[in-house]
Amino acid sequence: MDDKGYRLNFEPRREYLLAVCDGRLDAETDRLIDEDIRQECIQRGFSRVLIDIRKMQGRLTMLENFQAGASFGTRLGRIARRIAIVEQAGEEHLARSRFFELVATNRNAFVKFFDSAGEAEEWLSAPLGVTSGEKPVSG
């Protein structure tokens, strides 16, 4: 861990950027991680990212989850075309994850949660298109 309270390792893959997070999750850490991933995507030219948060400890409150989804959508959604997040399995995580997805998607981020890295990779590697539910990029 560094002085930020988290560790973030990046590994470029053929079709996406892998970001593995480790540390304690809170609202400020979440914001800092989003910004680090955003900068890395810009620097390396990736439009797809797999964020692995299975090693993160702690959870955001429902209000923090809403705020995180909203800012995630407006910041990272403008850079990354498709974002897969792998987290720990379990019903407790599912409801919060789906809520985050909804909020972020409403702010133009195409994000989806998985409990399996294999499923996330498969989804990231699929061709972009309207049939997958993605909105066309304007501009």
Low-pLDDT windows of residues: 134-139
Overall geometry comes to: globular
Radius of gyration based on Cα positions: 14 Å
Strand count, sense and barrel status of the largest sheet are: 5 strands, mixed
Strand percentage, roughly? Answer: 15-25%
Order of helices and strands: EEHEHEHEH
Q: Please, what is the average pLDDT? A: 85
* Number of continuous helical runs: 4
Proportion in helices: 40-55%
Strand order of the largest sheet: 1-2-3-4-5
Number of strands: 5
Distance between the termini: 39 Å
Structural class by helix and strand composition: alpha/beta
Identify the notable features of this structure and list them briefly.
139 residues; alpha/beta; 5-stranded mixed sheet; 5 strands; 40% helix; 24% strand
Task: Describe, in plain words, how this protein is organized in 3D.
Helices cover 40% and strands 24% of the residues. With 139 residues, the protein is α/β, with parallel strands linked by helices. The chain has a five-stranded mixed sheet with strand order 1-2-3-4-5, with helices on both faces. A hairpin with a 4-residue loop joins strand 1 (6-12) and strand 2. Helix 1 runs parallel beside helix 2 (62-75) and helix 2 (62-75) packs across helix 3 (91-105).
